[in-house]
Specification:
alpha/beta, Rossmann fold, 3 domains, nine-stranded mixed sheet, 19 helices, 20 strands
Amino acid sequence: MCLRRADDPRTPDAPSYIIEVHFMTQSDDRPDLPPAEAPDTDRTFGPVGAGDIAPPAIPPAAPAEAGPEDEFAEPGFHLVEPDNPLPAITADDLPPAQRDAVARMGWTTLTPVQSRAIPYVMAGRDVMVQSKTGSGKTAAFVLPILARINPEVAACQAMVLVPTRELAQQVFHDVEKLGAGTGVRPLSVYGGVGYGPQLEGLRQGAHIVVGTPGRILDHLLRGTLKLNRLQVLVFDEADRMLSMGFYPDMVAIHAYLPHRRTGFMFSATYPPLVRKLAAQFLEHPGFLSLSTDVIHVEETTHICYEVPPMDKDRALIRIIEFENPEAAIIFCNTKMRVNYVATVLQRFGYDADQLSADLGQAARDQVLQRLRDRKLRFLVSTDLAGRGIDILHLSHVFNYEVPEDPEAYIHRTGRTGRAGGTGTAISLVSPMEAIELVRLAKKFKIPIETRPLPDAEDVEQLVTQRLTALLEGRLRQRDKLQVERMRRFIPLARSLAEGEDELALLTMVLDDAYQSALHAPLAPPDLEPKPRPALRRREDDPARREGGSDRRRPRRRR
């Protein structure tokens, strides 16, 4: 057993470690993962109707040895390739301009994801790529996109959707560096900042637009961004975009996309909803995965946070804010602890209830039914809820305390990742409990990743971006009369923002908006793509085609 460093997909700059048991890696005698099918219940947005697009199936993993170009791959990595796979390339196989860019960056070789993904982008084949943060995936789509851009056409030819403004800035700077001297103009667009520089960049004819779905949708609705010349669409960190709540915006963007385009999706995990998104935006996508030890497609991811015993309640709040679970069960060992944790969550504003032996059978059934009906988001329970509960939309399980019986860990974490889906099991452990968790991981052959606890600044940045996207989305839905009505509060808002004492009032309003939107049970909205209403020309009027209307326009007197 050893500790191996890995990249945390949510906090790229922070190191994390994996408690890895070497004899538990995937082997040839391990049963193949079944192909993914469209689930009866969508994991984030409720029932999937007959009209939904079935998510593309993902083939089982097959072990492959690292080739010459895969010198950065760790031993034992597994490769999954699309049908009719394309051969991997080296830096020498790139077009001259991109080869010069690689040399300018000081790269002597391509990373595995670059050498295997670039050929598909160059060939214009839609593909889903499974790759963790830090693997060089940005250059895997930026380099071939640069080769396809025509600098003489002053229009958006490639668009990259990202979950956060930080990632938008990072991808933008990578495009600037790799595209230096090519005449390609990149532009980053995201919420929470003014429109001025973004509008200027669009007027100048940005070739590659990188941005968050909400702000890109804003520009599409304003008519400042046109996609009629779009050739390439990229989803970067698609799983994070869904956890940020951008799915409605992405569905709205779908109506503006040209029919003929190529699409690429990069994600660390491919739960059913991400595959459903791929089916909506990509054309018969293949699946390419370069993953070490385990293919994270249909499984429960086990995560551990080591925290002081007296700080577990605050740590739980931070992790919930960061993960934003659709629904979760928080397991404790005693009834007293269950009552305490449920009270903490309720006082913080979460929709939470408790389940323990103190409740009668009828009361227990009512609580569980609320959880099944999506009328309850967080359930705090003893091991009463560790068996016999099958809730498909349960995205997370939290172990507030390591169970006294090791077998109970399997039953607890088995409540998530049901029916071929994916789930997350998070354990909050003290230093002494961490030792017990290592023993448990070794006994049951479970890889448990240890991550650093998000700090207050991390949580602050994340909730700020979520709330900004939420408010911008609400503003887009307002009609002219509602916009005119709200203008009467502009002087008050400006006054509240300028005074230190009055700032508390504005903060309270924002907090209430965030709590009501993101801490309530997540109702499954209707998010099917809706076509844009077509502008009807006068000659298309049925009344005119049938010989005119009874209502004639009066003649103007001269």
